[in-house]
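Per-residue structure
===
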Amino acid sequence: MPGWAWLVPCALVPVVLLNVGVAWLGGTQVSPLSFSFLQTKARALGAYVAHRPACVLDEHPPLEPLIADAERRHGIPPGLLRALIQVESETRVHRISPAGAMGPGQLMPDTAAQMRVDDPFDPAPSVDASGRYLAEQLRRFRDVRLAVAAYNAGPGSVNGHVPHNGETEFYVAKVLAAYEHTRPKAPVLAKRPAASEAPAKAAAAKAPVARKAPAPAVHVKPPVAPRVAAPVKKPVLASARKPAASR
């Protein structure tokens, strides 16, 4: 085997170890022979190694209150940042993407440095930085779809439309679908009567209820028993002739 042939495995070993470390520690899927984003993955893995001892004994606080506070603080529509973090990391604090993005909001190393985040795996500053960055895109583009696209692909890639690069268009669709479930539901209002019906119903409610006059009492005379005429006795008339004397 020629000597130069040993250079190939020597060059592959660091790449394989880096990708395996990102996949194992960062909870993501990446090919061991991937040569993409080697520098950012190395920086992300270094940040993870520096962070991990700090959270071995102390558990991280829950993300829900941190996300809600960041949305209120930076004027983000309620539920939008939560949907974005859910799509980015599935709310996993220690996630590292195949491109080297870090933390719950998946901040790239350069973006984390720009937002002055020393530890992207620390939930409080990481979520706040993700909220600030998303709020900047909302103010810049004044459109939720474009702001979400700029969060994923960078504001320079958004020129009035969502870039079709095989990733961002699907990313925006996922975030908006999740946003439908995380945004507050509108209260259900009782149906109001039409304008023409309301005065009529109000007048009918105020009008006194007319009572029916009682029917006049009908006095029924008791039946009168028919009078029966007494039989007329005929007077007995004496005979004009005297009875003959007995002879």
